[in-house]
Amino acid sequence: MTQVVIHDTDHDTHHDHGPEQGRGFFGFAKRWLFTTNHKDIGTLYLWTAMLMFFVGGGMALIIRAELFQPGHTLVDPNFFNQMTTLHGLIMLFGVVMPAFTGMANWQIPMMIGAPDMALPRLNNWSFWILPFAFALLASTMFHNGGGPNFGWTMYAPLSTTYAPPSTDFMIFAVHMMGLSSIMGSINIIATILNMRAPGMTLMKMPMFVWTWLITAFLLIAIMPVLAGAVTMMLADRHFGTSFFSAAGGGDPVLFQHVFWFFGHPEVYVLILPAFGVISEVIPTFCRKPLFGYHFMVYATVSIALLSFIVWAHHMFTTGMPLGGELFFMYATMLIAVPTGIKVFNWVSTMFKGAMTFETPMLFAVAFVFLFTIGGFTGLMLALVPADYQYQDTYFVVGHFHYVLVPGAIFSLLAAAYYWLPKWTGHMYSEKLGKWHFWLSVISVNILFFPMHFLGLAGMPRRIPDYALQFTNFNQIVTIGAFIFGFSQLIFLYNVIRTARGHGPKVSGQVWEGARGLEWTLSSPPPYHSFTVPPEIH
């Protein structure tokens, strides 16, 4: 974490020109529709992500309720498949990505000493196309033939020859979400490279800013690949091409190559900003600088570069040549090295630190432990002979969710608790925060750990019914899912009461060990963060 000396800043004394707030509903709508302020847009992203989190979570609970007992108990198998597809798409594109983008909008200008984002109107537009994309995606469920039912990975020919008509709406929604991501990324790169305060070199930037800079480059590289994949899907469906149809000389495996060339870097798009958050939270509550800052930066760059050469580990069972299997196996295992460096550095930061365990720190420590479990199961999946057994079983579901729930979601919760007092000027309820943490961390393990046993016993994923011997573990998983889902309501309540001004007021330096430019501003920060750039020595 960068150590800064603030010199000659008058941000507390300047007149804080707030938003133009008209009267009544139209004034309110105008304020939020036309805003170009990074804090407003960050808030919009975060509330959208919160809404989609409960929508996607509701779909997950439908999936788990159906799987509580063998047999078709609650929903039609076709509807079950629609739930799995939309749950995946919404959680990735509707929750984790917008939430981290909202964090980036709020924090990056304050962390680098900028007054706002570099391209404020583009910022507004890249947010406001998202609600329409999500509405389009959700509308697919009300079409004749139902919503897309082929899984979030959209494998051809299930998504081309045999897909319902609503698939075209899904393709258009994916295009809109990708466009939003690309524009947001251009904005973030322009802001970080051009608007840093005098004296803030790249190697003095906070780790959260570094991880987002690298994530933004990743997004610009991979989003057009996804756009190409879904456009080829559209062409196969309506324009007589056969990219993915073997009957016309195409190859369904081509779709998997193109999709996973996007899909694997996308996993790092979801987790790199999480690494940045944890690298901010842990040093604050250990009251010492981040251990091995330069190595953290190099490890992040290494992860981003390696993520482009590991995609076919999702495809070991497609009949790849042995040389290809060996290459992708070793490349996948190699990516564990920079990730291991990060975990080592977080643990070393904690070593002999004056630690206190407020809610953000609890989530950060849980992240380090549980994300590591997800990493180890990933190494098991990287081994070709083992993957032949685990492929498309619940073992993969368990692995993936250990990376994304205790990984991405826990880091988002840590970030929310960490920065919420800075954003609102009020301290959240620590008691509610701790209740939320313990319920979440216990239930998330009840929810995802037994999935590994189910997978090892041979239960395939994406099935609405299963053999009798899998019942007990499935019931445990479903109970964990409902506890986890309902414990998130504590978080929602805590955020709303804090945003409404309940809880003690906080100073600019919210946390004792916090270092960095954002903590030199008042809480809540002025509408325009740094009208005079701070000087960093």
UniProtKB/TrEMBL annotation:
First-listed, main subcellular location of the protein, grouped into a coarse class: membrane
Transmembrane portions of the chain: 44-65, 85-104, 125-142, 169-195, 207-234, 254-278, 290-314, 326-347, 359-384, 399-420, 432-453, 473-496
Subcellular location: Cell membrane; Membrane
Molecular function terms, GO-annotated: cytochrome-c oxidase activity; heme binding; metal ion binding; oxidoreductase activity
Any GO BP: oxidative phosphorylation
InterPro entries tied to this protein: Cyt_c_oxase-like_su1_dom (IPR023616), Cyt_c_oxase-like_su1_sf (IPR036927), Cyt_C_Oxase_1 (IPR000883), Cyt_c_Oxase_su1_BS (IPR023615), Cyt_c_oxase_su1_dom (IPR033944), Cyt_c_oxidase_su1_bac (IPR014241)
GO cellular component: plasma membrane; respiratory chain complex IV
UniProt function note: Cytochrome c oxidase is the component of the respiratory chain that catalyzes the reduction of oxygen to water. Subunits 1-3 form the functional core of the enzyme complex. CO I is the catalytic subunit of the enzyme. Electrons originating in cytochrome c are transferred via the copper A center of subunit 2 and heme A of subunit 1 to the bimetallic center formed by heme A3 and copper B.
Domain Cytochrome oxidase subunit I profile: 32-537
The name this protein goes by in its record: Cytochrome c oxidase subunit 1
Species of provenance: Legionella adelaidensis
Keyword Cell inner membrane: no
Alphabetized UniProt keyword annotations: Cell membrane, Copper, Electron transport, Heme, Iron, Membrane, Metal-binding, Oxidoreductase, Plasmid, Respiratory chain, Translocase, Transmembrane, Transmembrane helix, Transport
PROSITE patterns: COX1, COX1_CUB
Membrane topology designation: Multi-pass membrane protein
Family: Belongs to the heme-copper respiratory oxidase family.
Reaction catalyzed: 4 Fe(II)-[cytochrome c] + O2 + 8 H(+)(in) = 4 Fe(III)-[cytochrome c] + 2 H2O + 4 H(+)(out)
Pathway of action: Energy metabolism; oxidative phosphorylation
Keyword Nucleotide-binding: no
EC number: 7.1.1.9
Pfam families in alphabetical order: COX1 (PF00115)
